[in-house]
Amino acid sequence: AQSVAQPEDQVNVAEGNPLTVKCTYSVSGNPYLFWYVQYPNRGLQFLLKYITGDNLVKGSYGFEAEFNKSQTSFHLKKPSALVSDSALYFCAVREQSGGSYIPTFGRGTSLIVHP
Amino acid sequence: DAGVTQSPTHLIKTRGQQVTLRCSPISGHKSVSWYQQVLGQGPQFIFQYYEKEERGRGNFPDRFSARQFPNYSSELNVNALLLGDSALYLCASSLEPGNTIYFGEGSWLTVV
Known about the structure:
The complex is a heterodimer of chains A (about 120) and B (about 110). Helix content of chain A is about 0%, strand content about 50%. Chain A is an all-beta fold and about 120 residues long. The model of chain A has no long low-confidence stretch (mean pLDDT about 95). Chain B is mostly beta strands and about 110 residues long. Chain B is globular and about 40 Å long. Chains A and B meet through strand 6, strand 10 and strand 11 of A and strand 5 and strand 10 of B.
């Protein structure tokens, strides 16, 4: 079985400061990992994914995520937060092979960037 | 290029009624998935279709059904609506199962 945990319901950060949104996962084999963002009353937008290779993945809007296999984590980061980054962020995981092709999503983390 | 499009965007139904939600995938995408998102939760998987065949089904009752058409568009049907079916229903498409999925804006269903 595959699962995702987003341990923080909400993250608060001041504009211009670095931000981190945490995600840990559990899969039987190697993972594919994803981050999506959801703005109010909208669908989810794809930000970035990890498949293999470099542990630091760069995505849209200046976001990046670091894959750590030993800690089974895939934290989302941005060096300098913007007020417009305020949204709901979802981490998702699926097994690379031998399992379902369907990703499992976390509960989401609300990011609030203060001016 | 157009993204995933869903209709209707909002609808209100009465308990016991039936609803049909529609989805058109990104051009060239052959796989469509449906998710239910209730307030405060992440998307929960309902169905996946590929080449008109069901490839996966989540833990939802038989009141939920779906199909995919030859043009790869899809419909989600929910019968005998319950208050608990009130949610945002998201459609997502991908080139094939296993590729990155891209979501539409969703259909907001309110059951009263």
